[in-house]
Amino acid sequence: MKRSLVIFYAIITYALAELMWWGYMLVSLQPRRFAMIMGEGSMFIIVFLLGAYHMQTSVRKERKLMEQKRNFLLSVTHELKSPLASIKILLQTIQKRDLSKAQILDFIDKSLLDVERLDDMVENMLLAAKIENSSYTFPKAQFNLSVLVDSIVNRLQITKCDCNQQIINAEIEPKIEITGDKFALTSVVTNLVENAVKYSKPCMAVDVKLFQKDGKVFFQVADHGIGISDSEKTRIFDKFYRVGSEDTRNTKGTGLGLYIVKEVLDKHQASIRVKDNRPAGSVFEVVFA
């Protein structure tokens, strides 16, 4: 890509130099037509430079997209290998060691959690692909959002911290019914809660709220993690975009989660905004009108 840019700039420089030389030659041969030559030459240069600028912008966007896709593939590879390696070790341990029934059941439960993690990631990638090529129709039906949020929170709940405390604190108002695509909205809730856990420090609490107010349904996910800078808040819903630098980032992810969240909510005429939590972290608020 760098070599292409060098060649591009060299061609632009050569073309401008040639244009100026031929302009000089024309003026020398026909000095009476100086004004016409300068006017047409200036207009040509302006159009030429505008075209070069837009081409350069397109090349930079393509370069950035290629870099994002490269990082996405690296992230997906890591995301796939980690749970697969965990499942392999757990199954090999069950196979080779004489374990008690309780230990076997514990290892199976851990393996199933990794399988669910893989399933979530595959569903995310498939849904993102369908959204991008407009092949997903978002079939809508009425369902109980309270039950959906509660089941996802229970599945993602982590209880391995000190004193075995739960780190997802949920306040879910019961019997909240909405009309929408249950499968796609499951992805929305899952991505928002997983992100909150992922970008928080170990065993740091995450607050999930679902309630109705003024005829609207509110879903909030608040964490006390690293937070999001104002400059990045407008970009976090872009495809493949991830908070922070690729060189220093430690958190896992593919950059598809929030892209899917925004696209799905747009199809449901719902809004989402992110604001700062106090004293640290972020709050994602979804509003169903």
UniProtKB/TrEMBL annotation:
Its EC number is 2.7.13.3. InterPro entries: BphY/WalK/GraS-like, HATPase_C_sf, HATPase_dom, His_kinase_dom, HisK_dim/P_dom, HisK_dim/P_sf, Sig_transdc_His_kin-like_C. GO terms for biological process: cellular response to phosphate starvation. GO terms for cellular component: plasma membrane. Keywords: Kinase, Membrane, Phosphoprotein, Transferase, Transmembrane, Transmembrane helix, Two-component regulatory system. It holds the Pfam family HisKA. GO terms for molecular function: phosphoprotein phosphatase activity; phosphorelay sensor kinase activity. It catalyses: ATP + protein L-histidine = ADP + protein N-phospho-L-histidine. Residues 75-289 form the Histidine kinase domain. The keyword Glycoprotein does not apply. The chain crosses the membrane at residues 6-27, 34-55. This is histidine kinase. It comes from Mucilaginibacter psychrotolerans.
